[in-house]
Design brief:
The protein has about 260 residues and is an alpha/beta fold. It is built from eleven helices and nine strands.
Length: about 260
Amino acid sequence: MGQNFLINPSVCPRIAELGNAAPGWGVIEIGTGIGVLTCELARRADKVAAIEIDSRLMPVLNETLAEFHNIKIINDDVLKVDLKRLIAEEFPGMPVAVCANLPYYITSPIIMALLESRLPIRSITVMVQKEAAARICAAPGTREVGAVSIAVQYFSEPKVLFSVSRGSFLPAPNVDSAVIRLDVREHTPEGVLDEAFFFRMVKAMFSQRRKALANPLSAGLHLPKEKVLFCMEQAGIPSTARAEQLSMEQMIALSNFLLPAKD
Ligand code: SAM
């Protein structure tokens, strides 16, 4: 289950502090493990809902978290938990933060699921592989940007908080890590006519990221290249542009011009 447990004592307090675990706040923790971060969250926030899939850890958690009376442990897969209901029941009227420390292969899908479901949460603080941190937080118009970073930027303002070396874990993994925080936007960018189409276009654009945009767009959206080039011109984008060179505003404009062309 991708369990590498944190043994460096300075990391969890920093995640808790920078992850908005504070008086008045509710925190959802995903991937509780043996409860090292949970303790730090519960010390700082009013209430913690800790979600852990592995039932073998329940007896351990009952022991490590025994001194706290503000933690609700939920033994389930986070993707099966009704988080909207959990928030309404456990944190009524409170600002809510999510902190997660998950196996890296499921972290991006879980971040996206949380963002896309537009949960009433203020932030998501999560540890990821160092390279993934740079990719997820890459701004539009930079070399590292990709479909995930665009989706993340659409819903939130991401930042890399600090690095965590591989020696901070037991067993030590083969990669270094970093903690990132996504501050969820109150309003997503304006002007997108069809959100599902916008994300389809972004995915197509980055499928061949080093190529001139018209080729992957034409292939991915099943549109004649001339039509794509015409829409790019209307959106004020040079015909030689590559996906990584576009700003968020240019992508939004392009998706709105391409939308009627797809029929
Ligand atoms: N945060 C803990 C620590 O540092 O001691 C453990 C981190 S460990 C990398 C990830 C934890 O996420 C594991 O305990 C694993 O069982 C749990 N996990 C994996 N998939 C999950 C899911 N879909 N829902 C909830 N928990 C999950």
